[in-house]
Automatic annotation (TrEMBL):
Name of this chain's protein: Conserved hypothetical membrane protein
InterPro entries named in the record: DUF8056
Keyword Transmembrane helix: yes
Keyword Transmembrane assigned: yes
Pfam family, one: DUF8056
Keywords: Membrane, Transmembrane, Transmembrane helix
Record-annotated DUF8056 domain positions: 7-181
Domain of life: Archaea
Transmembrane segment boundaries: 31-59, 71-92, 113-133, 153-176
Species of provenance: Halorhabdus tiamatea SARL4B
Length: 181
């Protein structure tokens, strides 16, 4: 595909998605542009609805802790959405500067897919042994099947340490970017 070094090749985050999709020669990267964009949009919607729900549930209560809870929701959303968008934005930026490299595109797309998987695995690791939902006590499902050893390993991770799973994937993404640039 033809690369362009025009600074106005795309405008902002939303314009980077079609640009990266058109500019890359890697099918894996094209797939990640679509999947990563959809997952990032879904995560953003979920967090916006969570903040709205939190605000609705706490209307009339004084600020303080609740204000910091809202800010924490936004921080967590940024820590998840940022790495979801990073491969697409980095590929678009690299192609805009005229430095196309199929290996770089493929490696970043693979690390992006690994981050998507790590977010799910982090959610599994953060599941408490039992919790109350709508007045009922619910216990997490037992690990069985082909992935039982992986699920057992994830269940063994302490809940406060569960963000380390996607955190490690984000660090790997950064290392991949540095290695292939």
């Amino acid at each position: 595909m033809s690369d362009t070094t025009n600074e106005a090749a795309y405008d902002g985050v939303l314009g980077a998605f079609p640009y990266a999709f058109r500019a890359t020669d890697s099918r894996l990267c094209r797939a990640y542009v679509v999947v990563g964009g959809l997952v990032a949009a879904l995560v953003a919607i979920v967090f916006v609805l969570a903040v709205i729900s939190l605000i609705g549930a706490t209307v009339g209560t004084p600020g303080g802790f609740l204000t910091s809870a809202r800010a924490f929701y936004v921080l967590v959303a940024l820590l998840i959405v940022g790495p979801l968008l990073a491969p697409t934005l980095l590929v678009a930026r690299r192609h805009r500067r005229g430095k196309s490299d199929r290996r770089y595109d493929r490696a970043l797309a693979a690390s992006g897919f690994a981050f998507v998987l790590s977010v799910y695995l982090g959610l599994v690791a953060s599941m408490p042994p039992s919790f109350v939902l709508d007045g009922e006590t619910v216990t997490r499902p037992a690990a069985d099947g082909v992935f039982a050893p992986l699920v057992e390993f994830l269940y063994a991770i302490p809940e406060p340490a569960s963000p380390a799973v996607p955190g490690l994937a984000a660090v790997i993404m950064l290392v991949v970017h540095r290695r292939y640039r």
